[in-house]
Amino acid sequence: MAAGALVSCSTYEPMAPDERFEDGILTNTRLTDLVTVKQNAEGKAFLQYGSYALMPQGIEFVRQERAMASMIVRPEMQDGYYRCELDWLEPIEEGYFCPDPSSAPKTPGYGLDIIFQSELTRVEDGYLSVHYTTWWGDLPTHHDFYLVGGTDPDDPYLLRLVQDERGDAQVTQAEGLVCFDINSLADTAGETITITLCWTGLNGIEGSTHFGFKNRE
């Protein structure tokens, strides 16, 4: 799939502290957050929201993907799923995960800044999602994003985020959201291990950070 594009994040509503919790999940409150669209053994589409399985009505499974969902989770549970009322569901762009550096761009484009204060920047359910800022032109061109592994034979969990701006001009800085399916990283055997993410910032300075990761079950 083509990767990375300009994405509006203005509808994101971080969950506020609330007393309406059921088994650790916020219920009866409209929220907008990342989910994974999955298919169960009966062929029905459901949403994986952290460690919780949600069963919305009226959606068909097309493919497994990360998406932004505006929803209300109800406290009623049936067959292991919380009932979920969806306002909308929008897939987010999926970048290219390159375990072998030879499949990544030879001349990566200009840098980007990762928005760490955003709860959208996280590792969850075998995916890394990155809320970022980068340069765009007056008529934004589709940018491709690559998450490159295999750069350190002694550390399979060292990853580098690069973009190919495909000739786009540097006119204005704007935000975007991209995810990567990193579940094919070396098996963590059910344990949470540390992965290192490296990138080049808009100022040309190298940055790095760490996330906890374990493979999807």
Structural description of this entry:
This protein folds into 2 domains: 21-91, OB fold (Dihydrolipoamide Acetyltransferase, E2P) (Beta Barrel), CATH 2.40.50; 93-213, NigD-like, C-terminal beta sandwich domain (Immunoglobulin-like). 30% of the residues are buried. It is mainly β and 217 residues long. The protein has strands spanning 21-22, 25-26, 30-39, 45-49, 52-56, 65-78, 81-91, 93-94, 96-98, 113-114, 122-124, 127-136, 144-148, 158-164, 172-181, 193-200, 206-213. Strands 3-4-5-7-6 form a 5-stranded mixed beta barrel. Strands 8, 10, 11, 12 and 15 form a 5-stranded mixed sheet that branches. The chain has a 5-stranded mixed sheet with strand order 9-13-14-16-17, with no helix packed on it. The protein has no helices and 17 strands.
Distance between the termini: 24 Å
Order of helices and strands: EEEEEEEEEEEEEEEEE
* Fourth CATH level, the homologous superfamily of the largest domain: NigD-like, C-terminal beta sandwich domain
Number of domains: 2
Query: Low-confidence spans: pLDDT under 50, at least 5 residues?
Result: 1-20
Q: For the record, what CATH class of the largest domain applies?
A: Mainly Beta
* Rg value: 18 Å
Helical proportion, percent range: under 10%
Q: Which class do the helix and strand fractions yield? A: mainly beta
Q: Biggest sheet, open or closed, and with what strands and sense?
A: 5 strands, mixed, barrel
Average pLDDT rating: 87
Shape: globular
CATH topology of the largest domain: Immunoglobulin-like
What is the correct CATH architecture of the largest domain?
Sandwich
Strand % is over 45%
DSSP helical segment count? 0
